[in-house]
Amino acid sequence: MPLRRTVLVTGGAGFLGSQLCARKLQQGHQVICLDNLQTGRMRNITPLMSHRSFRFIEHDVITPYQLKGPVHQIFNLACPASPPKYQLDPIHTFKTSVMGAMNALELAREKGAKVFQASTSEIYGDPEISPQPEGYRGCVNTFGPRACYDEGKRAAETLFHDYHHRYGVQIAIARIFNTYGPFMDPQDGRVVSNFINQALRGKDITVYGSGGQTRSFCYSGDLLDAIEALMDLNEAAPAPVNLGNPGEFTVLELARKVCTLTGTRSQVVFKDLPQDDPKQRKPDISVARSKLGWQPKVRLEDGLHRTIRHFQAEMAEAGHLTAAAR
């Protein structure tokens, strides 16, 4: 692999994609960012637009695309990741996962590129075992409101497997557990952004169900370290790898941490649990530890503090911050 690579990031204007684009530019690579801006935001990549090695293409990955010149690495991150966003248009979400994966794989096949698939812990559904190892096949409802995302990502993994074995395409697949950090959209509907957004606006903190369901939260910087290590790994027959923080917290614990760190006077209120909401999320990351020499470093409190500061700055700029939260 040449020292200076041409890297394509689909979903490159998103929360993780934009930070990955910035990393690759800092490493001296040529970066092509492709995004339809359905959930990605131009503000995330505005600081990169003037960089001579950065190119932005507004395009939907469900439609095939071609690029001139060499492409050495492809990071397929394109897909809404929060339930409220991916449920807005479930058919398009499914197409993004499946057709988006196929189009990325076809380009990788044409260019001889290695391609990364951002899969998800959601392929495990509402798991019957905890923690979840890669060998666990999941408990997914194919006929529910989350199926467009869960089953779309499962199908994408199958495509990656088959393109590798049929055509020899170099692949890497990460099953990503709940990730948070700066550059999240405050309105994206994920639990961390919801709680911080509500706390900074002085609104009630909405907890679904009893709040006893658990999640494992990985800071975005830690996750990107792992993704890059996975893409640099030379392996003949790669299998999906769990990436996440095995620290397990209840949703109610998270709500209380956010309240403490923001100093809000918001009250926690409880609402009915959505259909198919997982009761547990905890990754077994023993494969990532052994193969990548990786494990997360950022404690939840430290990562939340950094994320809260970013939200405060963005919301103050938009005039949405309460006086008490400034």
Report on the architecture of this protein.
The chain is α/β, with parallel strands linked by helices and 326 residues long. It is built from ten helices and 13 strands. The strands form four sheets. It has a seven-stranded parallel beta sheet, sandwiched between helices. A two-stranded parallel sheet has the order 7-10. Strands 8-13 form a two-stranded parallel sheet. Strand 2 (30-35), helix 2 and strand 3 form a beta-alpha-beta unit. Helix 6 (191-201) runs parallel beside helix 8, helix 6 crosses helix 10 and helix 8 (251-262) crosses helix 10 (300-318). The model has no long low-confidence stretch (mean pLDDT 94).
Could you give the topology of this structure?
Blueprint: E1 6-10, H1 15-26, E2 30-35, H2 42-45, E3 54-58, E4 73-76, H3 83-86, H4 90-111, E5 114-120, H5 147-167, E6 171-176, E7 179-180, H6 191-201, E8 205-208, E9 214-215, E10 218-219, H7 220-231, E11 241-243, E12 249-250, H8 251-262, E13 268-271, H9 286-292, H10 300-318
Helix pairs in contact: 4-5, 6-8, 6-10, 8-10
Q: How do you describe this structure in short?
A:
By secondary structure, this protein is α/β, with parallel strands linked by helices.
Return the structural class.
alpha/beta
By oligomeric state, this entry counts as single chain
The best one-word shape is globular
Order of helices and strands: EHEHEEHHEHEEHEEEHEEHEHH
